[in-house]
Design goal:
This protein is mainly alpha-helical and 215 residues long. It has twelve helices and no strands.
């Protein structure tokens, strides 16, 4: 198969496997999604979902969170890891949202990425899942599978994002990035598939010998 043919087949197969694409992080609105995505850095979604109920019970708006002491935020989110940095970022960005954005999460990449603790991937998730703006957030699963499926040269996350955006229709990005994540977790994990085991790897690369990819 050519790269374009693989992309088309992968797109079709994943749409069939995952017709529904719920956001894995529990949230109520753009602000709670933003905080949940920030907490998910180097932490599983499952653990984030265990932590956020207590955090959002304490404060679920920028106004309320900006009044919570940083040490209290830190004590609640400690199980997510990197709690000193994340707690300060949550406090600071909440204050900025109140002071500069009327207490609302901005609906553009530049303003989101200017917030403490918010990088391009986090901004992309919020733009895609909170506001419906086409984006292609690339996490470790997507970066790994895009390399494994030879949809990109895999030199950087930025290159992977650019390559995937060229291969797939813009209107599919918001669902497709979640479908790839779901597939990577359930069928083509770093340890569970060596590039020859799961259904898509067998179909797209029937003659492939086991390969190693970045985890």
């Amino acid at each position: 198969m050519t790269r374009a043919e693989r992309a088309a087949r992968i797109h079709e197969a994943l749409a069939g496997l995952y017709p529904e694409t719920p956001v894995p992080l529990d949230h109520r609105d753009p602000y709670t999604l933003l905080i949940a995505v920030l907490l998910s850095a180097q932490c599983t979604d499952a653990r984030v979902n265990l932590v956020t109920p207590a955090l959002f019970a304490r404060a679920s708006t920028p106004q309320a969170m900006s009044e919570v002491p940083v040490e209290e935020i830190r004590s609640i989110i400690r199980p997510c890891g990197l709690s000193p940095r994340k707690s300060q970022a949550i406090s600071d960005l909440s204050r900025i949202l109140v002071e500069e954005h009327g207490g609302e999460v901005p609906q553009n990449f530049a303003a989101l990425e200017a917030l403490p603790g918010v990088g391009h991937k986090t901004a992309s998730v919020v733009m895609a899942q909170a506001f419906g703006v086409p984006a292609f957030p690339v996490d470790t699963h997507i970066h790994r599978l895009a390399q494994r499926w030879k949809l990109t040269n895999g030199k950087s996350v930025e290159q992977t994002e650019a390559d995937l955006k060229k291969l797939f229709p813009r209107e599919s990005w918001n669902q497709l990035h979640l479908r790839i994540i779901f597939y990577g977790r359930e069928h083509c994990s770093a340890r569970g598939c060596d590039g020859t085991t799961c259904g898509l790897c067998r179909e797209c690369f029937p003659d492939r010998t086991p390969v190693k990819t970045k985890k």
